[in-house]
Amino acid sequence: MAPVAKFWAGASLLGIVLFWNAPLLFKLSDNPPRVPRQNSTLILLIWSWPFRAATDLTGDVCSRLYGITGCQLTTNHCLFSQADVVVFHHWELQYERRYLLPSKAHPGQKWVWVSLESPSNTKALEGWTGKEWNWVLSYRRDADLFFPYGELVPHSLDVVEIPEKTGLVSWVISNYRDSQARAAMYRNLSRHLRIDVFGKANRKPLCPDCLLPTISKYRFYLAFENSIHRDYITEKLWKNAFLAGSVPIVLGPSRANYQQFIPANAFIHVDDFSSAKDLATFLTTMNESHYRSFFAWKRNYMVRLHQDWRERFCSICQQYPRLPPKKLYPDLKRWYWDY
Predict the structure, then answer these.
(1) Based on C-alpha coordinates, what's the Rg of the chain?
(2) What's the angle, vertex CA 74, arms to CA 315 and CA 329, rounded to 5?
(3) Region 19-48: what's the mean pLDDT?
(4) How high is the mean pLDDT of the chain?
(5) DSSP conformational letter for 37
(6) Less packed terminus of the chain by CB within 10 Å, N or C?
(7) Is 255 exposed, middle or buried (0-12, 13-18, 19+ CB in 10 A)?
(8) pLDDT one-digit tens code per residue, 85-105
């Protein structure tokens, strides 16, 4: 074959190869594989901000608010291909799943599944391939990123002040369903003593600034969880009871589980009594010395609430070097319901 003919034949073959592989070449060019950069800023993309609430991410928010350096929080989807970590909050995910990208942008990218709701209130956990979720951020102590609703931190106090009390028991409830265990306990207990009920469910909503002052007037508060799961201890205890200065009567996981978070003498558990009548008798006959003993923890601890999602997300950057790099959750629902 003549040299010119050979040249054109080779060129034609090369053209065919380039034509059929053009999509792959463009994909590699636009989205090159990479691994998280070392000793530089970690890009953390929040796919949908929790509950679509607006928040301020300007500047170095992690450093400014929490002293965590080298962390860039963003909600800009244009940075997906560059993100080292992508965070998906489940409340939005269960509705926006059809918009989810089909795969990770590069081999080093990690995806984090986030939920602080109990399994009973978490839907659409099925149908994942098992390759999406590297880490979980949850109230569960066995999560990769453990973030409770609140915690007790060391604090020294010489004198414990207890707010003046004018009532016995209060409860703030927004979503009341007869089928819930807390509804049954409330009905049984209310037969034996007065319970003042506030909140949307009783058409007595409290403004944000009215919540704690109202609860503080009562000796006891019903810190009843909407569902019973291991480690599921919410703001009903940490904020509504502890911060208000009311002794919590808890309905949730076991007493032993609560005692992994708070002192044994800081709360009253409904399971400690054989009946609602016995619990009512205990509450109505308690002397002042016994009542004050429930506040002994305040001499050594104070409550720290975890309510800002920026804190939770910045902590991912802080813990990133210690997180297991090859972990996957092949069955997310099975893990979340294993309690």
Answers:
(1) 27
(2) 55
(3) 56
(4) 89
(5) P
(6) N
(7) middle
(8) 999 999 998 888 777 777 999
8 Å CB contact between 111 and 133: yes
Q: What is the dihedral of CA 133, 138, 140, 144, to 10 degrees?
A: 50
What is this structure's pTM?
A: 0.86
Q: Is 164 a catalytic residue?
A: no
Q: How high is the pLDDT of residue 7?
A: 39
- pLDDT one-digit tens code per residue, 278-324: 999 999 999 999 999 999 999 999 999 999 999 999 999 999 999 99
Tokens of residue 285, six digits: 């006959």
Q: Which long-range contacts (CB under 8 A, 24 or more apart) does 321-326 make?
A: 323/110, 323/134, 323/135, 323/144, 323/145, 324/135, 324/144
The pLDDT of residue 53 is: 87
| Element at 212 (helix H, strand E) | helix 211-215
Cβ–Cβ under 8 Å, residues 94 and 124: yes
Q: Is 133 exposed, middle or buried (0-12, 13-18, 19+ CB in 10 A)?
A: buried
206 contacts 156 by C-beta, under 8 angstroms: no
Single-letter amino acid code for the residue at 140: R
d(CA 285, CA 237): 23
Q: Positive or negative CA dihedral for 89, 91, 94, 99? A: negative
Q: Which contiguous run of DSSP H or E holds residue 168?
A: strand 167-172
Identify the active-site residue in 117, 132, 161, 311: 117
Nearest to 125 by CA among 91, 76, 152, 83: 91
